[in-house]
Write a structure and sequence with these properties.
The complex is a heterodimer of chains A (70) and B (550). Chain A is an all-alpha fold and 70 residues long. Chain A contains three helices and no strands. Chain A has helices at 12-22, 28-46, 49-60. Among the domains of chain B are: 16-82 and 124-197 and 294-365, FAD/NAD(P)-binding domain; 440-546, Glutaredoxin, CATH 3.40.30.120. Chain B contains 14 helices and 28 strands. In chain B, helix 2 runs parallel beside helix 9. The chains are: A mainly alpha (70), B alpha+beta (550). Chain B: Residues 27-362 form the FAD-binding domain. Chain B: One of its GO terms (molecular function) is FAD binding. Chain B: Its EC number is 1.14.13.127. Chain B: It is an enzyme of class 1 (oxidoreductase).
């Protein structure tokens, strides 16, 4: 299954608000830790190595050619 | 500074009641002659209610201020008969572009479909809006009493009325009102006098607001930059206004000194970096401000009703200030008129607060989110914001997360006590509590608009589909609704025949209507209830519910 790069969040602004609120009481080190945990949780949920590899490539360079994205 | 606009000076006229010292009880006193107060006064006049408007000043808004007026307020001004002049003078637009550095990353269309009389937005300096509303009010001189240089010094609730102590150039006098409507802005004297808490969040970031006169070839679109080369690390917003005046807002950050930043020798170089050394321009108005998101808990306090910024204050991103204030009074005045005529109980006015607090909550939430995106308050918040912008240029999923302001739309009164819930299925059409949708129609052979046949009164839209007349067994009883104390006027809408002919079928589509579908619309063009067949008894019950006497 390719990586979804089309909008897929039912309430983007609500999600974004909760994401920022997650960090409200954290210092920078705490935020980094929470972000890392969040990535690991979501990666496990996704599972598919091809999707994860494509996401990692695009995170490193959002302009990179897409080989496994839709 | 240049001026493209000559500010009118409205005369102070001593009032009879102040001169004679005889205290007068007025049905409605509006405090504040800004866009919201003036619209309230026009709507009172429209409903036949005499109204006194008090304003501590004697001219219109200084500076362009509100600028962006959305489709729904334009529909309200159209109902009040004064939208055309605004459309003629204003700059019509619907597209927004979001840039990062010097690259376009996202664009939006606020009204992608045709078949609406009103555009998504117009831009117009607030002084023109106020001037035109005042001109329109002069057409109702018998009902609208505009009093300049009248400052409310105190307000005292007194059981079945309120007493206002008013200061004019001739000193103080007292007047009474059955109902007072406070439209006196974010720093409302009335709110202060009643000692009501105005709770919320203040933002530290400062913004420079400029009105620039120039000949420029930017399109009539909303352009927003994150971190542009001409204003590093901050955001910039551009809007076209009338008379070659352009609104340009610069985010300044939390450390900026407002007095320094207002000086032309600071402002002009900023503008030159944006516009280029060769673009000739003049400054018309400059202001630096901070904003806050806060509101009153309740918009009704006995016989004092709060509307506009006096009731709720939002950040400017999304043009949700004046636009929602106009919708406040649209919701309020028909209810007040019914209460004044003794046709509805006072508790109908509690529904004003119920419904408009709902709208204020949505506006506050939305504008706070926009502010947090534009002006991130922590390192991690800024990292997410910048990451979103990194991704949005290349990957579509991130674009809906880019928040440069979500532009004003009407808030549905979902769950309002005035709604009659659906008992039959409808899909893809505005449910009860939502503003009625416009559509092109033909009336008496001439092209017209559906919304122009709604409003000011209760209307039952009776759809005919392909039929040419309503079912005969209902014709008489439906017509009898118009003779009730709070009448319901039936307007038939058919594909081939009817009071309104829906040749293109858009009205049927937008209301998910088939032959017999009946939609009850309130005087503020909000849908109260809808059914698959015309039933006078259900219509009367829904009407009674919508005026809180059920």
């Amino acid at each position: 299954m390719p990586l979804t790069i089309q909008p897929n969040l039912p309430d983007p602004d609500g999600f974004y608000e909760r994401l920022i609120a997650l960090h409200r009481d954290l210092d920078l080190a705490g935020s980094r830790r929470v972000n890392a945990r969040l990535i690991l949780l979501l990666a496990n949920h996704i599972g598919d190595p091809e999707v994860l590899d494509e996401a990692m490539r695009l995170a490193l360079d959002p302009a990179a050619p897409r080989t496994h994205a839709r | 500074m240049l001026s493209t606009y000559a500010y009118p000076e409205f005369p102070y006229v001593p009032s009879e009641e102040q001169r004679t010292g005889r205290r007068v009880r007025h049905p409605v006193v509006v405090v504040g002659a800004g866009p919201v107060g003036l619209t309230a006064a026009l709507d009172c006049a429209h409903h036949g209610v005499p109204v006194v408007v008090l304003d501590d000043n004697s001219t219109v808004s200084v500076g362009s201020r509100a600028v962006c007026y959305a489709k729904r307020p334009l529909e309200i001004w159209d109902r009040l008969g004064c939208a055309q002049r605004l459309l003629d003078k204003g700059v019509i637009w619907k597209n927004g572009k979001v840039f990062r550095h010097d690259r376009l990353i996202y664009q939006f269309d606020l009204l992608p479909e045709d078949g609406h009389r009103m555009p998504a937005f117009i831009n117009l300096q607030q002084y023109y809006l106020e001037e035109y509303l005042i001109d329109h009010a002069h057409g109702f001189d018998d009902r609208v009493d505009l009093r300049w240089k009248h400052q409310v010094a105190d307000i005292t609730p007194a059981g079945d009325h309120v007493r206002l102590t008013v200061e004019t150039p001739d000193g103080f006098f007292d007047m009474e009102a059955d109902w007072a409507i406070a439209c006196d802005g974010a720093r409302s004297d009335i709110r202060e006098a009643l000692d009501l808490p105005f709770a919320g969040q203040a933002f530290q970031d400062r913004f420079l607001i400029t009105d620039v006169v120039m000949k420029a070839d930017f399109p009539a679109e909303r352009w927003f930059w994150f971190d542009p080369p001409f204003h590093r690390g901050q955001s910039v917003l551009l809007h076209m206004q009338a008379d070659n005046v352009w609104r340009i807002d610069f985010q300044l950050g939390m450390e900026a000194d407002p007095e320094q930043e207002k000086r032309p020798e600071r402002v002009i170089p900023r503008l030159k970096r944006m516009l280029g050394e060769d673009t000739a321009f003049d400054l018309e108005w400059v202001s630096v401000y901070q904003f806050a998101c806060r509101r009153l808990e309740d918009f009704r306090h006995g016989r004092v009703l709060f509307a506009g910024d006096a009731a709720h204050q939002v950040s400017p991103f999304g043009a949700r200030g004046a636009n929602t204030g106009i919708q406040d009074v649209d919701n309020l005045i028909w209810k007040l008129a019914l209460v004044l005529r003794g046709q509805a109980p006072e508790r109908l006015l509690d529904s004003y607060s119920e419904e408009r607090v709902l709208a204020a909550r949505e506006n506050l939430l939305t504008s706070t989110r926009s502010t947090d995106f534009i002006s991130p308050k922590s390192t991690v918040s800024r990292a997410f914001r910048d990451a979103t912008l990194d991704l949005a240029e290349h990957l579509p999923f991130a674009r809906p997360l880019v928040n440069s302001g979500r532009l004003s739309r009407p808030t549905p009164y979902t769950g309002s006590s005035l709604n009659t819930a659906d008992t039959e299925p409808f899909t893809g059409a505005p449910p009860p509590g939502t503003n009625a949708a416009d559509a092109p129609v033909t009336a008496e052979g001439a092209p017209d608009w559906l919304l122009r046949h709604l409003g000011d009164r209760f209307v039952a839209l009776l759809f005919l589909g392909e039929e040419t007349a309503p079912p005969p067994d209902h014709t008489g009883t439906m017509a009898a609704l118009a003779a009730q104390d709070v009448p319901i006027h039936v307007v038939t809408v058919g594909r081939r025949a009817g009071d309104l002919v829906d040749g293109a079928g858009l009205a049927h589509e937008r209301y998910d209507a088939t032959a017999g579908t009946t939609v009850l619309v309130r005087p503020d063009q909000v849908i109260a209830g809808r059914w698959r067949g015309p039933d006078p008894a259900r219509l009367a019950t829904a009407r009674d519910r919508a005026i809180a006497r059920a």
